[in-house]
């Protein structure tokens, strides 16, 4: 089952998600970064080994990333509270 936040599953939402995934993969390929996404049967994941991500650096207590952090972090998402 699939959900956008609290939205119930609907074929329309599934199609929208597929459109987002297609556009994301196409954009990543265009810049030579398609290895950032790992795809397998019924799954999609991020390959953090190939990314330069401020969040990952923040979690490792990188001084530059920690000092760059200001204000709220993704406060519009309830699950973001658990990320830091």
Structural description of this entry:
The mean pLDDT is 83. This protein has two domains: 1-47, no CATH class; 52-84, no CATH class. A two-stranded antiparallel sheet has the order 1-2. It has three helices and two strands; from the N terminus they run H-E-E-H-H. The chain is extended and about 45 Å long. It has 84 residues and is of the alpha+beta class. It has helices at 11-30, 54-59, 63-68; strands at 37-40, 43-46. 0% of the residues are buried.
Output the number of helix runs.
3
Percent of sequence in beta strands:
5-15%
What structural category arises from helix and sheet content?
alpha+beta
Outline type? extended
**Proportion of residues in helical segments:** 25-40%
Question: SSE order, as H and E?
Answer: HEEHH
Radius of gyration: 16 Å
Number of structural domains? 2
Strand order of the largest sheet: 1-2
| Average pLDDT taken over every residue | 83
What is the rounded distance between the termini? 27 Å
Taking the sheet with the most strands, its summary is: 2 strands, antiparallel
Reconstruct the topology from this structure.
Layout lengths: L10 H20 L6 E4 L2 E4 L7 H6 L3 H6 L16
Antiparallel strand pairs: 1-2
Which tags fit this structure?
alpha+beta, 2 domains, two-stranded antiparallel ribbon, 10% strand
